[in-house]
Amino acid sequence: MASLSSSLMKPISQTSYTSLNFTDHSPNSLLLPQILSFSGLGFRGRSLGLLSVMKNSSQTEASVESTQISDVPLLCCSEAIERLRSSQESYKSKQQYLAMYSSIYGGITTDSAAMVIPMDDHMVHRGHGVFDTAAIMDGYLYELEQHLDRIIRSATLAKINLPCDRESIRRNTHSNHTGFQQDRVISNLSPSNCRKPSLYAIVIQDQSPSDQKGVKVVTSSIPIKPPQFAIMKSVNYLPNVLSKMEAEENGGYAAIWLDQEGYVAEGPNMNVAFVTKEKELLMPHFDKILSGCTARRVLVLAEGLVKEGKIRGIRVRNVTVEEGKGADEMMLIGSGVLVRSVLQWDEQIIGDGKEGPVSLALLNLIVDDMKSGPHTVRVRVPY
Ligand SMILES: Cc1ncc(COP(=O)(O)O)c(C=O)c1O
């Protein structure tokens, strides 16, 4: 391994590998893969060049000395961090990462360049991790206990041992920082020969202007996750990302999944609900989709609308597409979107094509609840 460490001291472009035997299983044969992963993406394209040297040559011994391997410099840790910082500074995002707790370094950092997750974390390259997101409004975390319940449930379903007890997760989620709005907890298990489970908590300030105008949705052609995976909030969100992209490509805000039996399921990061012609609030069952904390709270708050006579009742059951598209109102519900009216689903205009009174009343109820709800849903963040 002496040759490995000494070659790593030099930029890769200065390193020459002579007579590298690709079928060799001696320790030196480890040289290429280790350097490949060390150099990451920048090197990957060039590794194809190396492989073509192998292909074009009838020899098993491929001389790569004459091949320009890479101009990518080899950086020490502080140089890499500095480059991370400049790359972040050059990227203007509406989301600011204000603070991060990591159980790996056992502390909180406010330096966004240090808000990183180790490459060998099983969450990063195998998707073995769960997460949750809760909103912070006026210094109060909304529905913290409900989000803690869900992340612990998700971790159990994903066979992830909690890296610490519930109280420690709660404490770390209370990270003290002014002005934050969103908090995200990611927990990860690395099985057997990997790292032990880790906990990360990130505080994100979303500066996008709030927009509650009604939106269009489309039916997702990306298949919904099977119920076993849809009911847990794992980091495997590729189907969700693709379905959101499909919506945007078709001028929509979100794509709606149908379940395996063709009933209305949910959106990529929100639940859906309807107001029927009979003035009932209707929501799909949570048995094959994510049990949304906001949607569950809406079901409780909507009881007030029943008392006021604004709706006749509340039902949670299977919803057909025909019923959904023929509803008086349709809405998206979630921690990010809160309650947002849907004005059009595919080619079908919903109701009279305007934000409905029940959706608007539910939005007001949720916002009031976030600002002045009971202590069971509001926990003060100790600034
Ligand atoms: C797939 C999915 N469904 C529903 C929701 C809504 O859940 P919540 O109201 O807890 O944010 C989310 C939230 O991210 C989600 O990812």
Structural summary, described in words:
The structure is a single chain. This protein is 33% helix and 22% strand. It is an alpha+beta fold. The protein has helices at 2-8, 31-39, 41-56, 77-90, 122-126, 144-157, 166-173, 227-230, 238-249, 293-307, 321-325, 357-372, and strands at residues 20-21, 61-62, 95-102, 107-109, 129-137, 140-142, 182-188, 198-206, 215-219, 254-256, 271-275, 280-283, 313-316, 329-334, 338-345, 348-349, 378-380. α10 packs across α12 (357-372). It has twelve helices and 17 strands. Strands 9, 10, 11, 12, 13, 14, 15 and 16 form an eight-stranded mixed β-sheet that branches. The longest helix is centred in the N-terminal third of the chain and has 16 residues, at 41-56. The radius of gyration is 25 Å and the shape is globular. A hairpin with a 3-residue loop joins β14 and β15 (338-345). It folds into three domains: 2-62, no CATH class; 77-206, Aminotransferase class 4, branched-chain amino acid transferase, N-terminal domain (D-amino Acid Aminotransferase, Chain A, domain 1), CATH 3.30.470; 215-372, D-amino Acid Aminotransferase, subunit A, domain 2 (D-amino Acid Aminotransferase, Chain A, domain 2). Pyridoxal-5'-phosphate (PLP) is lined by residues 133, 266, 269-271, 290, 292-295, 334-335. Pyridoxal-5'-phosphate binds next to α10. One of its GO terms (molecular function) is catalytic activity. Belongs to the class-IV pyridoxal-phosphate-dependent aminotransferase family. Keywords: Pyridoxal phosphate.
